[in-house]
Design goal:
It contains eleven helices and 22 strands. The protein has helices at residues 16-23, 76-88, 108-120, 133-141, 156-173, 188-202, 210-219, 252-258, 291-299, 318-328, 397-410; strands at residues 3-8, 29-32, 41-45, 48-52, 65-68, 73-74, 97-100, 104-105, 182-183, 186-187, 206-208, 224-227, 265-273, 276-278, 312-314, 316-317, 332-336, 346-355, 358-359, 372-380, 414-418, 426-428. The strands form six sheets. The protein has a ten-stranded mixed sheet, with helices on both faces. Strands 16, 18, 19 and 20 form a four-stranded mixed sheet that branches. Helix 3 crosses helix 4 and helix 3 (108-120) packs parallel to helix 5. The radius of gyration is 21 Å and the shape is globular. The structure holds guanosine-5'-diphosphate, 6-O-phosphoryl inosine monophosphate and magnesium ion. Magnesium ion is lined by residues 12-13, 39-41, 305.
């Protein structure tokens, strides 16, 4: 068996959580391979709504084993908030959850460093979710990090104190004061105490060599689905750097984030919205600063799942989509939120960029180039609601044309279409 992958092709929030939940009954194992609680993956069914940040989106299917891979970074406080919500809903997430002992821990001081670095950037702020993502991955690569497998060590507290002390030098130099700092509205000292309580509770969870579990599962014929977080345009190498996250969000990240060989990557499913959104700062060529942008935001309920911030909205960017497909080796496309375009009489789609009047032949190194102008093709909207008895065959003709236009441009089929947040509002070829 090989690991199939579901990942985002835009700037995150494409609807990965919903689709992983829809696909997971077909898989024995669902595994997150990168990112941390900066992710917010929404799943809706039976009138209920859950937002997951750390736990894989296969958790609602009792028979899928869910793995938090070594490439993920974990804030134990946030992870237990999720676990508690699932327990309140009558679930027993600890039964089908495994945590990689090689996954790194986000310390409370990583979150202070995130805030300190952001505030120092002034106008050039990344718009980070302030969950400590950048500083935790920095410590991982600087070989200072603390891993989940360390929590049972007698010297764990000493490791923690040593890293905190290192962080405090920077925190102090930025003029931040622990006595007044709050995390999610909680005073620092209280958050730190909660963090240690969560570490104790983590000892009752199944902490394993996740890479061995995944490879053994494959060898024994069990199917594995890898769940991406963020999106390709936020990838640390290929996204709109420096306005990116600090992990490899692309398919290659599955190999290092779960410990699987490139030979063992199977089908790659690329998820994209029928339009584009971005939350946080950074270039966004097709962004609409007008009523149309507002209509997309209101219609799509485009407010961050993790931070509640309004998402920036704009038309679908096909050159960016094609670039993302190339980087990930996508086999099959999943188009989300088609329903949000229902009320539009005309829909535009970006098909190329011009720079200073000249058509660009390749995807630009710098998306925020002065004079970069997206070129649009205008298409007819379908201007009707998509009812619950819609099928791929009975879609309105202008929607079929929109899909065909995209398929022709990127030379890949759209095999799955989502037309509402609920699990059931999904069509597959
Ligand atoms: P993720 O981070 O990629 O998992 O996406 P988010 O959960 O952050 O954001 C997607 C949002 O769109 C969530 O509020 C979903 O409930 C919602 N959603 C997903 N698919 C659809 C869809 O087809 N139509 C509509 N209207 N909403 C959708
Ligand atoms: P999901 O998995 C959308 C954005 C932030 C910021 C930049 C860096 O829900 O799609 P970070 O906290 O990583 O330092 O922030 O990346 N960002 C996301 N945007 N969806 C996400 O995750 C995101 N995770 C991070 O807004 O611009
Ligand atoms: Mg999200």
């Amino acid at each position: 068996m090989k690991v199939d992958v579901i990942l985002g092709l835009q700037w995150g929030d494409e609807g990965k959580g919903k689709i992983v939940d829809v696909f997971s009954p077909r898989y024995d194992v669902v595994a997150r391979f990168q990112g941390g609680p900066n992710a917010g993956h929404t799943i809706e069914f039976d009138g209920k709504k859950f937002v997951l940040h750390t736990i894989p989106s296969g958790i609602f299917h009792r028979y899928s084993m869910n793995v938090i891979g070594n490439g993920v970074i974990i804030d134990p406080v946030i992870m237990f908030r999720e676990i508690d919500k699932l327990r309140e809903a009558g679930m027993k997430p600890e039964e089908n959850l495994l945590i990689a002992n090689r996954a790194h821990l986000i310390l409370p001081t990583h979150r202070i460093l995130d805030a300190a670095y952001e505030s120092a950037k002034k106008e050039a702020k990344i718009g980070s979710t302030l969950k400590g993502i950048g500083p935790t991955y920095t410590d991982k690569y600087a070989r200072n990090g603390i891993r989940v497998g360390n929590i049972c060590y007698p010297g764990f507290r000493k490791m923690y104190d040593g890293l905190k002390e290192l962080h405090m030098k920077t925190v102090n130099s930025y003029g931040f004061d622990l006595a007044t700092f709050t995390l999610d509205g909680i005073p620092y000292n209280e958050y730190e105490a909660m963090w240690f309580e969560a570490i104790e509770k983590m000892k009752d969870l199944k902490v394993v060599d996740a890479e061995v579990f995944i490879n053994k599962s494959l060898a024994e014929g069990r199917s594995v689905l890898a769940e991406g977080a963020q999106g390709t345009m936020l990838d640390v190498d290929f996204g709109s750097y420096p306005f990116v996250t600090s992990s490899s969000t692309v398919a290659a990240g599955v190999c290092t984030g779960l410990g699987v060989s490139p030979h063992n990557i199977g089908k790659v499913f690329g998820v994209f919205k029928a339009y584009c959104t971005r939350v946080g700062s950074g270039p966004f060529p097709t962004e609409l600063h007008n009523e149309t942008g507002n209509k997309l935001r209101e219609g799509g309920r485009e407010f961050g799942s993790t931070t509640g911030r309004p998402r920036r909205c704009g038309w679908l960017d096909l050159p960016a989509l094609r670039y993302a497909i190339m980087l990930n080796g996508v086999d099959s496309l999943i188009m989300m939120k088609a329903d949000v375009l229902n009320p539009f009489e005309k829909i535009s789609v970006c098909t190329s960029y011009k720079e200073s009047g000249k058509l660009l032949g390749s995807y630009p190194f710098e998306l925020s180039l002065e004079g970069l102008e997206p070129q649009y093709t205008e298409m007819e909207g379908w201007n009707t609601a998509l009812g619950s008895n819609t099928s791929m065959e009975s879609l309105p003709a202008p929607l079929k044309d929109y899909i065909k236009f995209i398929e022709k441009f990127v030379e890949l089929p759209v095999d799955t279409l989502s037309f509402g947040p609920d699990r059931l509002q999904t069509l597959q070829t």
